[in-house]
Amino acid sequence: MLFQRQAADLGSDPNLAGKRAFEAEHYLLEVRLQRERVESFEAFPFSLPAVRHLETLELHPAVTFLIGENGTGKSTLMEAIAVAWGFNPEGGSKNFNFATRASHSPLHDYLRLVRSPKRPKDGFFLRAESFYNVASEIERLGVVRSYGGKSLHAQSHGESFLALFMNRFGGEGLYLLDEPEAALSPTRQMALLARLHDLVRDRSQFLIATHSPIVMAYPNARIFLLTDDGIDEIAYEDTEHYRVTRDFLARREQMLKILMETED
């Protein structure tokens, strides 16, 4: 299959992304929290670790990952960056203006996005948890053709995600993805990696929140780990996602025995 060939090409040279970094565009340079305007870091959303410790987040011109445990605030931060850029809080492009439920936080009003002089020609905010609502809006707007010509509701969850990546993302864009692996099998996650690389070579920039050790393996990306103690850049091999997955697969029977032991 095509994506398998692309994935093989991607993995053939670990420095490939670095060699082609000049082909990416740096549309969003930095995300800064205007801390002086925050009245209290004890109130939501400022109490979240991702926000409480945020000062300046410098993004990679190609791919930046946000990782961390549930509850650290990755999705809240992603949502705020998306809204500050002009995307709909529930997802979609800047042309989407619908609200199933107004539940987004006011954090976007406290962010300052440092933009480059370059302007993207495309953009999209994918939010896995509200993608159903986005698919419904696509049908309402009558723009199914831009997403492969087949209703996203008429496809499996994973197929609809992949249709979005393969058909709607046109390059020269800024793409914000919140847990894009949510509906994808491991094989489809590798297809996403290959497509992501094609788009990077077509002058695109990505900010991705993920739990997937496959997705975050994209070479030479910046990975920011969000914890209760702060936000730190981390190497791929040092992430818990990589180490836990590696150790579990290498010692599956031993790990299962430990996990399933019960006290008498």
Folded structure, characterized:
The chain is globular. It is built from 9 helices and 9 strands. The model is unreliable at 1-9 and 11-23 (pLDDT under 50). The chain has one domain (2-233): P-loop containing nucleotide triphosphate hydrolases (Rossmann fold). It has helices at residues 2-12, 16-19, 49-52, 74-85, 131-141, 157-168, 186-201, 240-250, 252-260, and strands at residues 28-33, 56-58, 63-68, 111-115, 122-127, 173-178, 205-209, 222-227, 230-233. The longest helix has 16 residues, at 186-201.
Q: Key features?
A:
6-stranded mixed β-sheet; alpha/beta; 9 helices; Rossmann fold; 264 residues; single chain; globular; disordered N terminus
What is the CATH topology assignment?
Rossmann fold
Number of domains: 1
Strand share of the residues?
15-25%
CATH-level-2 architecture:
3-Layer(aba) Sandwich
* Helix residue percentage: 25-40%
In total, the number of strands is 9
SS class: alpha/beta
Strand order of the largest sheet: 5-6-7-3-8-9
Number of helices: 9
User: What overall form do the CA principal axes indicate?
Assistant: globular
CATH class: Alpha Beta
Q: What does the radius of gyration come to?
A: 19 Å
